[in-house]
Fold each of these.
Amino acid sequence: MGDRVRVAEVLHTVIAVSGTTVRLADTEGAVTDIGLIELSAAEDFEVVRASSRTPVPPTTPLEGLPEAVAAEALWWEQHIVEVLRGVPPQAPAGTRPKPEYDPAVVSLTRREQAKAAELTAAGLPVTASAITKRRRRYEARGVVGMVDHRSAKPVSAHGRVDPLVVEAMRKAVAEAAQGSTRTATYLFWRTGQILEADHGRGAVELPSRRSLYRLLEKLSAGKHTTGSARTRRSLADRPDGPFGERSAAAPGELMQMDSTPLDVLVRLDDGVPARVDLTGVIDVATRSLTAAVLRPTAKSVDASVLLARTVTPEPMRPGWARALAMSRSALPFRRLLDIDARLEHAAARPVIVPETIVVDQGTVFISRNFRASCNFLGINFQPVHDASGWEKGHIERMLGSVGTLFAQFVAGYTGFNAERRGRHVEQQRLWSLLELQELLDEWIVLWQSRPHDGLRDPLHPGRMFSPNEKYAALVETAGYVPVALSADDYIELLPATWRAINAYGVKIKHRTYDDQALNPLRQQRSGVKDRKDLWEIHYDPYDVSRIWVRDHRNSGWITLFWKQLHRVAAPFGELAWDHTRRTLPGASEEQLADAVADLLRRAHQGPAERGDTGSRAGLSRRDRRVAARTKSSPPSTPIAPEAHPADRVADGQAGPPTTLPRRASPR
């Protein structure tokens, strides 16, 4: 039904099909019933897929064709329309058709024969069958069907270059995607090497130099083959097909985490300038930067600390403007305060409980410790695919914004590569790590009130919201459930290892930990068969003074102190210990503790005076950097210090107190 057919030189439309009977209606409205077999057996039967009237032309039917080809198509349209209608297109109203083209008197076949005779007499030999073919193409495609099909043949995108050369250069361009940037001359040489390896020496001849340059330009278009290596790798890793995006309709529904070096030099202890790592987490629904920490070197425990800070209110600090308080922000402070009393003195940064966290394949995030932290807090852990940074584009862009909106305004800014770095940056007045962290925390609160281009009203796209305004809108529908972390919760977020409890205690990296509370568990099996009856130990890589043993039987934690703690008067972490152990591979635990203490003592005293030959020998550059990074790394767990057994009063006599490292107050 709906098909157009021509029978006895009359155009009909199929209006019904019933069994073997077809009902036809002509252009004047007359209805005819005919058998299907009789219809198909008629000599003049023809199926017409389109109307005989001039089709509605496309907006640009002949655009892009050579001028001569387009003019020829329009010339043929004049003659074919005259065959169909009797008069050429655009003919004035009332124009009478020529006698040989009058549809009311002459059949379509006769009209086609007349047109063939007319064109042949005019010097263009053509047969009636050729006119019939052009008429059918016009009925199906319009004026585009009049274009010479030879001009529409696809032309090779690479010209006359041998396809073997094209394929070889395509391989050379693909090889360069992950390699270092090289020039076009190397790619030409590599193309010849591939041809020689695949087809033999001299089997395929390379075209001229100019042809090779033109071919390379076509094959490397949009790939940065001879440009930036970072951009080239990013384009090569980009997936095929259209880009998609997972939407988030509630705070915490989807969060992203990443770490990157901050383009700012900080002054570590002992005056050592160094760059630090920035680790941050962002909420996709509200674009809130819920937490960010600076560390000399990012570790898995830092990712766990970010989780803890995300679900913990940011307290107001001395010196901050009152305008940064949550009570004066767009956040629904009064309503949230009735639910969570911790918000009374909080800054204007929302507390968001993550449901799903997207991270990359970095060792900081795919570590067992961070996975365990996510499981502990009930968070869905979702790593991206390899080399797929675009899957967490929000945090990538956010860290870039930290560089442009914060880092470049800080003293000691280095730029993101050596080409953009100024001279003698390390000689400027640099911030310490803790001071820079304070500035970053204040900037994050300010960021929350800044209108964000990605937060627009769908009904009024011209209106931008700030992260705090977006959070206030979404929390009305999503709700708010506070999560308070205790000291034991922070211990749960620390890295874990499994060890046996021996008669002398627990040994980790050649350090022995012990306490009287461990007596019931000495040389006992934990009962955890999957871990070969070992005991779960949690430790802080920034503070080696103590560890925590999980008591599976009593559901608690036992704090163990390092036996050599009395030899070291300052807190330090794994970095200083590992550095000293590599320097003295055969030293005992006591000797290593003394060496670490001496390293920190010499770092504190500073370099020897010129001409001084005393015992204050100068530190190596590596020693100074290790000591500075050690002192600049605060402990991860905000737990109140406990008294070491050596400090306790023995037999009622107050002994001399042993100097212990003090823990940093919780942030």
Amino acid sequence: MKDVRRKVRRAQTIVPFGVGGIIDIRGESFVAADIRSWAANGERVESPRLATKLGVQGFRSAPVIPSGKAAYATRIGPTYVRFPKWLFCPRCRKMVLWRQNLEQWGKQAVCGNCSGKPQLAPMRFIQVCREGHMADIDWRRWAHSRSEGHDQRQCRVYKLRFVATPQSSGLEALRVVCVACRAGRNLAGISQKNVLKQIGMECTGSHPWQSVSDEADPCEETPQAVQRGASNVYFPITHSALDIPAPQGVSEEEEMAQKVFDHHMWPDFKSSANGPASAVFKEYIARDCGVPQEFIETLRRRHAEEAASMPSAEDPDDDLSIAEWAAFSAPESVAGSRTFSVRRTHLGVRHDDPESMQALDARISGIVVADRVREVRALEGFSRYEPNVGDGEEGAGGRVVSVNTQHRAKWLPAIETYGEGIFISVDEQRLSRWEALPSVRDWTRRIERNLDASFKADRLRGKSGPKLLPRFVMLHTLAHHFIRQLSYDSGYNAASLRERVYARSHAPGSELPPQAGIFIYTAAGDAEGTLGGLVRQGRPPNLIETLIRLLESAQWCSQDPLCADSTGRSLANLNRAACHACTLLPETCCEIDNSLLDRTLLIGDGEVTGFFREVVQAALEESAEAVDLP
């Protein structure tokens, strides 16, 4: 019997096949429905810090289907609906508008006219708009858009064929033809802007998974025809946070307060002051946390007073980075837990080691290896045709569509992953002196001018802070080269490693501590985590050798001198000396889309002094002395 089960890994329900994403499986095409289709028994994922940032009550992950229990998936798993609805038979070329009543569990869509019942193939093109809507192209209207006679213009028959003519090539060879009136049109020019508007097509204002009872949104955006596998069909918006336990030595009262803050009803209780539901929320929180109701009321008053005294709300991304930076900077103060186990180590440099190692050790202030770390990744929504680059739904570009298209999402789909990593912090005094150099400031200011003019400015500012510091570009570039070198030394490929850069600036007058470090980690869907390859590379003498090698390799690129002398690369010229041959990484590795990278700030050139320039020069001199001259 042919196995026609469709399988999706749990991690893929967030990216790339999360809500609104299209998946191709064995010649069939489906789209993930919104979270209203998720069963109520989805597994809860705890991440209070991330939930507070996103303003939701919690997270859920898709349940794992036991082996051999595929039929059970319809009752507990996320729903994927067939899209596009227009299919065609590869043999007789007849087009079929598929209906939900034709769907049969575990069976593919097949042609009922041809012998052998060949599988129907989905049409290649669909329509999307900047409001996030997606629908089938009205192929009947397309076929009749160049009608000549009266009968063709008045034809309303939905009997179409998708034929391929051998007389031409490309999209001109593909033609949609009406069986009744013989009207037809090829696909040449279908991807041109506003071509659908020219023939009278409008946005449907709906999503493929919506039922007949769901009211369509009034949409005035012009629909655009795109290939269903194009990269601009789906831009997921994800957030992630590391699970950081509470510091050691906290009082019993602080522990009780943290337990209340982590309760899923706490956000509703804060917002319902003097409301009719306030007493109910208070009673449930007190019962679940085992604390008096007066204590909960005191916490709410304290929170209201602190919020009123603050001049402006802190950036949520800033809040997440503060806790993570504090945990890695002082691992002794963090209580070890099942989800977060870190310990301090060193480079292992001795007084008689080469000068390059001594210089590198002077610039590194701390090394922490994470034997076990837990990360939660959540899907907030998505946009289409253009990525959303502002704050929330009102930002520039495509509108953000929530994972719940009918109501405000109280919870978000998420996954928890376990792994290991290496944290490296840079000496703050040396870094501050280097940032004060006029050549370094001027060089970074040029990049920041391009950042201000970029369509990604708001999103990138969320990571770099209100001002782009030289340390951010330098440490971000170091993280990329570190991942590339670890892919050779640790046994992990580059796509399985991820970065977190701690170098953001703070608002003027802020008392938050400066950040200067990177965390390279790997996270897998298995609850057991990974196998220790990164932790081994974080121990002496492996780490110092890895760092020296990555700095040496950062000096050259196969695209030099074009890469080294570049004054602007990538979208909006946000990169300098960085290209695919030397610095860029797979999209899953980088948290800011391979932007704000420059090898020059890392190793220097004739105009700018790199932070690790002395290390590189010492390593080169030592290599030259080691060569036996005749």
